[in-house]
Every structure is written in structure tokens, then in C-alpha cells.
């Protein structure tokens, strides 16, 4: 028995050379494809010093792009938060016709290119689109305006919250909600006092990912924005314009904002994963006297 156990452990134990090679390859990949580009962004952004860096960020068109990015994220993230919680609760806690269809619809933004998504909005709301004449008659602008950017951002960030919560809720089961219902709790009380405490860290994880994608989206927003400087340019589009104008230092200065966002997102994501794992592995609390 001991010999068999020793043979199994030996079969799954790599030599020092193999471990070193794997570790070296992993660190090399991490350094070349992650750390080096990140270092290059900040190095180029600060190439002319802090004064030029702050001046590039405070430039009116750049500041307008920052505000528009915050507006798009500030609208799309709460809306997707509400939809994601409602859809995941319905899918995980109830049985109904069309459940698999709803799951498929949630996954559509993952399978459709963002550029194609932008073209779809142009086809629907553009001047020659399905509702173009009606919108023009009522002096409503969606494409090449802020509403189009918000719609495109909502579309590409649509699945993040729901896709994070659905497997979590399914793993938790329905027993606690059913017990709360039997004890007389209504739907809102059941969600607020039973469901929400169990999904709070997963919910925050989905919101963090959704916000990061909303601020960094390029493809769909590029199609519907029209690249109107100072009006419909988000941060990624402003970076593209500055780079195409050979204003490299300013372009990297603005790009460093997205890099900082990525680092903050990574830190928040790591913390939430740690809290989620610690709560999952924590022993159940003992209530009442021993």
C-alpha cells in the first residue's frame, strides 16, 4: 500500500529542471507580454515630464473624452447591474419556458464582434436606418451622439454581471429562498435578506469587470461615435486620434489612464476573489448557546 502511494506521488512530482523551465517560461511570457507593454505606456507618458503629462490630460478634448467615458460607464453599469441580478435570479431560482433562450440571448454580446454590434445600431438608428426618418423628424439624435455611445456600451457589457451570478446562484441552490418563503417572507424580503448577502461578492466582481469593459470599449463605440472631437470621443478613441496625429506622448499619457484603470480593476478583482473564496470556505456559524 505504501509502495503504491509512493509510486503515485513520484509519478506526479516533476524534477527540479522541469519546474525551473516551466517557471522561466511563465515569467518570460509575463514579463514580455504584460509587464513590458505596461512599463512602456508609463515610460512614454512621462517622457517629457510630469508637467506635460498633466497638461495632456487637462487638454479640453481629452477632458471631454474622460467625462463622456464616465457618463457611458455610469449609465451602462447600473442598468446592466439591475438586469444581471434580475436575469440571474430568474434563471437560477425559477423554472420557466424560454430559460435556455434567455441564457443564449445573454451570451450574444460574447459571440458578436463589437464592430458588428456598432453597425447594427447604425442600421437601426442611423439616418438611413429603420427608425432614421422618424428620429430625424422628431429631432432625436442617437448615432454620432451620446445616446448611441451609451447603447453600444450597454450592449458590449450586457453579459458580465449576469454571467458572473448565474453559476454562483445555481451552486447555492434554492433551499434558503424556499425556506424564507415558507416562513412568510415576500419576494423583496427574500432577495434582500437571503439572496443578496450570499451573492454580494460575486455581484461586486461582475460590476468591476463590467465597469472595466465599459471604460475600455473601442470597437462598437468607434462605429457609432463618428469621432467628433470634444463631443463623441471616449478615452480609447481620443488615444487613437492623438496617436494618428503623431502626438505620441499625449497619446500615451491618456492611455496611461486606462492602464491605471486596469491595475485598479486587477487589485479590486483580486480582493473580491479572496473574499469570495474565504466566505465559501468558511465554516458555518454556530447560533445559539453551546
UniProtKB/TrEMBL annotation:
<feature type="transmembrane region" description="Helical">
    <location>
        <begin position="248"/>
        <end position="268"/>
    </location>
</feature>
<feature type="transmembrane region" description="Helical">
    <location>
        <begin position="21"/>
        <end position="43"/>
    </location>
</feature>
<dbReference type="GO" id="GO:0005886">
    <property type="term" value="C:plasma membrane"/>
</dbReference>
<keyword id="KW-1133">Transmembrane helix</keyword>
<keyword id="KW-0997">Cell inner membrane</keyword>
<feature type="transmembrane region" description="Helical">
    <location>
        <begin position="142"/>
        <end position="162"/>
    </location>
</feature>
<keyword id="KW-0813">Transport</keyword>
<dbReference type="InterPro" id="IPR005667">
    <property type="entry name" value="Sulph_transpt2"/>
</dbReference>
<keyword id="KW-1003">Cell membrane</keyword>
<keyword id="KW-0812">Transmembrane</keyword>
<dbReference type="InterPro" id="IPR035906">
    <property type="entry name" value="MetI-like_sf"/>
</dbReference>
<comment type="function">
    <text>Part of the ABC transporter complex CysAWTP (TC 3.A.1.6.1) involved in sulfate/thiosulfate import. Probably responsible for the translocation of the substrate across the membrane.</text>
</comment>
<dbReference type="InterPro" id="IPR011866">
    <property type="entry name" value="CysW_permease"/>
</dbReference>
<keyword id="KW-0472">Membrane</keyword>
<feature type="domain" description="ABC transmembrane type-1">
    <location>
        <begin position="66"/>
        <end position="267"/>
    </location>
</feature>
<dbReference type="Pfam" id="PF00528">
    <property type="entry name" value="BPD_transp_1"/>
</dbReference>
<feature type="transmembrane region" description="Helical">
    <location>
        <begin position="63"/>
        <end position="89"/>
    </location>
</feature>
<keyword id="KW-0764">Sulfate transport</keyword>
<dbReference type="InterPro" id="IPR000515">
    <property type="entry name" value="MetI-like"/>
</dbReference>
<protein>
    <recommendedName>
        <fullName>Sulfate transport system permease protein CysW</fullName>
    </recommendedName>
</protein>
<feature type="transmembrane region" description="Helical">
    <location>
        <begin position="101"/>
        <end position="130"/>
    </location>
</feature>
<dbReference type="GO" id="GO:0015419">
    <property type="term" value="F:ABC-type sulfate transporter activity"/>
</dbReference>
<comment type="subunit">
    <text>The complex is composed of two ATP-binding proteins (CysA), two transmembrane proteins (CysT and CysW) and a solute-binding protein (CysP).</text>
</comment>
Amino acid at each position: 500500500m505504501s509502495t503504491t502511494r509512493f509510486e503515485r506521488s513520484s509519478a506526479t512530482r516533476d524534477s527540479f529542471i522541469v519546474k525551473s523551465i516551466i517557471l522561466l517560461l511563465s515569467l518570460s511570457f509575463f514579463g514580455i507580454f504584460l509587464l513590458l507593454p505596461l512599463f512602456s505606456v508609463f515610460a512614454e507618458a512621462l517622457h517629457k515630464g510630469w508637467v506635460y503629462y498633466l497638461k495632456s490630460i487637462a487638454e479640453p478634448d481629452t477632458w471631454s473624452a474622460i467625462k463622456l467615458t464616465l457618463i457611458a460607464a455610469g449609465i451602462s453599469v447600473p442598468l446592466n447591474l439591475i438586469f444581471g441580478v434580475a436575469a440571474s435570479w430568474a434563471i437560477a431560482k425559477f423554472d420557466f419556458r424560454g430559460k435556455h433562450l434567455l441564457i443564449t440571448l445573454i451570451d450574444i454580446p460574447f459571440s458578436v464582434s463589437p464592430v458588428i454590434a456598432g453597425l447594427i445600431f447604425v442600421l437601426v438608428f442611423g439616418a438611413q436606418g429603420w427608425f432614421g426618418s422618424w428620429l430625424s423628424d422628431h429631432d432625436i439624435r442617437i448615432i454620432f451622439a451620446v445616446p448611441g455611445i451609451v447603447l453600444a456600451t450597454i450592449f458590449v457589457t450586457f453579459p458580465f454581471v449576469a454571467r458572473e451570478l448565474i453559476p454562483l446562484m445555481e451552486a447555492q441552490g434554492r433551499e434558503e429562498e424556499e425556506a424564507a418563503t415558507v416562513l412568510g417572507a415576500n419576494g423583496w424580503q427574500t432577495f434582500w435578506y437571503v439572496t443578496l448577502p450570499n451573492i454580494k461578492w460575486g455581484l461586486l466582481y461582475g460590476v468591476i469587470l463590467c465597469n472595466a469593459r465599459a471604460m475600455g470599449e473601442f470597437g462598437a463605440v468607434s462605429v457609432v461615435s463618428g469621432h467628433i472631437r470634444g463631443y463623441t470621443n471616449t478615452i480609447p478613441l481620443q488615444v487613437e486620434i492623438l496617436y494618428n496625429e503623431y502626438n505620441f506622448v499625449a497619446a500615451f499619457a491618456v492611455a496611461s489612464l486606462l492602464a491605471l484603470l486596469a491595475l485598479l480593476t486587477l487589485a479590486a478583482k483580486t480582493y473580491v476573489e479572496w473574499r469570495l473564496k474565504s466566505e465559501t470556505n468558511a465554516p458555518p456559524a454556530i447560533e445559539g448557546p453551546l
